[in-house]
């Protein structure tokens, strides 16, 4: 009798277990696992490419699972095969407990196609029980030097024969120097900050083809013009003697951030003939550092120039201007200078500040800003902020600044501005009131590399020829 009872219990348990394995899990908390969350196709860019990779979709439950959809979301460059059946869509795929299917992914790219982005992206949706998960697909679209999570050590000189595409970030290590020659193009992914703990030397020269360009890696519309497409360049506390010449920085979140090294020579960062445009947050953010900028254009950023917590600064023949457009609302002054900073815990810190702005333009249009230049002072630390021979748009001039020969609220008469199509030519018209209004200084050329006069120069980064 006892053996019979034990047999019956064992039979019932086996029956229940069998029923459980044959039933479908319908919970939104069902476990679906992928052998890889992202498929990388690293070698397609070399020539006309066709490569196949595979990813496994695993039912991690002790019951059956029905995949309602396995679908390729885009399909321009990628194609999929689901367990031997061609895509781009398969429906109602039943997986036994612990079972799996393979999705084979092929990509075919013509690397020389017009307007092809450097990185081709797509995704596969796996839907079940009203939920969706995604497998990301990423392939190189054009021939380039591709760097992922790169650390620069020693003294490295790049070449300009191919562009550089950076994913995951790049770090110039402490005591290392990276030199970038004229004509080099650097394209950075959305996850790729350019971190400088050592020294960065960017050696662009006059002429558009000789500029060095930093920008996001999406060249396809509409992404090519979006601000915030990549993090920016960050000069950190140990970084020294950095210099950028004839360098264009476009569409970053924060184009340039410099922190530390407020004293000494040379400054932590020297900018000559640089264009910083369309940054979502800051064009130049200096925190307790030293920056010397000449013939630079900082335009259409959320905050064009922000200098916090003291430091040593000189801006000579620079133009900072903001226009509200579809991408960036002009709601912050184009220049903010302070000897103070508030930390995350609410603590307020002050530091010595010395800043001079000479022959500059600070202007904004169609925004919500009354004072395009704001200067704030707290505490009793050493403080000097001087403006000489500048044009600024201010309703109330800053009281903590020393000023001389200023032109207030006078339209610079830029050559051509069309907010509707986001076209900005910020050269001065022949009738501009800022022509010959500067003070003599050592600069002999302007942002275009064209000559400035021995006598009185024009205000801003461009000299009327």
Q: How would you characterize the overall build of this protein?
A:
- This protein is mostly beta strands and 465 residues long.
- The protein has two domains: 32-140, Sandwich (Immunoglobulin-like), CATH 2.60.40; 145-428, 3 Solenoid (Pectate Lyase C-like).
- It has one helix and 40 strands.
- The strands form five sheets. The chain has a 26-stranded parallel β-sheet that branches. Strands 1-3-8-5-6 form a five-stranded antiparallel β-sheet, with no helix packed on it. Strands 2-10-9-4-7 form a five-stranded mixed β-sheet, with no helix packed on it.
- Strand 30 and strand 31 (348-350) form a beta hairpin.
- It starts with a helix and ends in a 37-residue tail after the last strand.
Q: Which class of secondary structure composition applies to the elements? A: mainly beta
Number of domains: 2
CA radius of gyration is 29 Å
Query: Low-confidence parts, pLDDT < 50 over ≥5 residues?
Result: 12-19
Number of DSSP E strands? 40
In helices, the fraction of residues equals: under 10%
Shape: elongated
The overall pLDDT, averaged over residues, is 91
**Main β-sheet, in a few words?**
26 strands, parallel
Strand content: over 45%
- Assigned CATH architecture of the largest domain: 3 Solenoid
What CATH calls the topology of the largest domain is Pectate Lyase C-like
Distance between the termini: 111 Å
Number of contiguous helices:
1
Give the CATH level 1 class of the largest domain. Answer: Mainly Beta
């Amino acid at each position: 009798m006892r053996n019979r009872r034990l047999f019956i219990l064992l039979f019932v348990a086996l029956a229940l277990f069998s029923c459980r394995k044959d039933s479908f899990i319908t919970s939104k908390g069902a476990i679906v696992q992928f052998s890889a969350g992202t498929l990388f196709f690293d070698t397609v860019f070399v020539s006309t490419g066709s490569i196949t990779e595979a990813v496994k979709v695993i039912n991690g439950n002790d019951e059956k699972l029905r995949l309602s959809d396995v679908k390729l979301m885009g399909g321009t460059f990628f194609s999929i095969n689901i367990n031997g059946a061609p895509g781009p869509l398969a429906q109602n795929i039943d997986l036994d407990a612990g079972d799996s299917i393979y999705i084979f992914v092929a990509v075919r790219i013509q690397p020389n196609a017009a307007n092809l982005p450097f990185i081709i992206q797509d995704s596969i949706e796996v839907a079940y029980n009203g939920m969706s998960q995604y497998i990301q697909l990423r392939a190189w679209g054009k021939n380039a030097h591709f760097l992922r999570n790169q650390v620069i050590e020693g003294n490295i000189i790049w070449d300009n024969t191919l562009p550089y595409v950076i994913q995951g970030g790049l770090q110039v290590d402490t005591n290392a120097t990276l030199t970038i020659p004229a004509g080099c193009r650097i394209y950075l992914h959305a996850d790729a900050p350019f971190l400088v703990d050592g020294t960065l030397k960017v050696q662009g020269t006059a002429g558009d083809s000789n500029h060095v360009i930093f920008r996001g890696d999406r060249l396809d519309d509409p992404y090519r013009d979006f601000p915030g497409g990549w993090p920016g360049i960050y000069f950190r506390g140990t970084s020294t003697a950095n210099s950028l010449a004839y360098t264009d920085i476009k569409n970053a979140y924060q184009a340039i951030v410099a922190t530390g090294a407020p004293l000494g020579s040379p400054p932590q960062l020297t900018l000559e003939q640089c264009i910083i445009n369309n940054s979502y947050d800051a064009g130049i953010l200096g925190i307790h550092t030293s920056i010397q900028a000449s013939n630079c254009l900082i335009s259409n950023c959320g905050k064009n120039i922000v200098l916090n917590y003291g430091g040593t600064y000189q801006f000579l023949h620079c133009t900072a201007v903001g226009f509200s457009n579809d991408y960036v609302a002009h709601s912050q002054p184009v220049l903010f200078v302070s000897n103070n900073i508030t930390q995350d815990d609410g603590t307020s810190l002050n530091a010595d500040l010395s800043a001079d702005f000479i022959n500059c333009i600070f202007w904004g249009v169609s925004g919500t800003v009354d004072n395009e230049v704001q200067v704030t002072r707290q505490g009793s630390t050493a403080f000097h902020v001087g403006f000489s021979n500048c044009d600024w748009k201010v309703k109330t001039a800053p009281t903590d600044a020393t000023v001389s020969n200023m032109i207030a609220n006078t339209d610079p008469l830029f050559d051509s501005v069309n907010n509707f199509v986001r076209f900005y030519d910020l050269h001065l018209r022949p009738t501009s009131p800022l022509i010959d209004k500067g003070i003599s200084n050592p600069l002999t050329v302007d942002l275009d590399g064209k000559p400035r006069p021995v006598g009185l120069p024009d205000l801003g980064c461009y000299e009327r020829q």
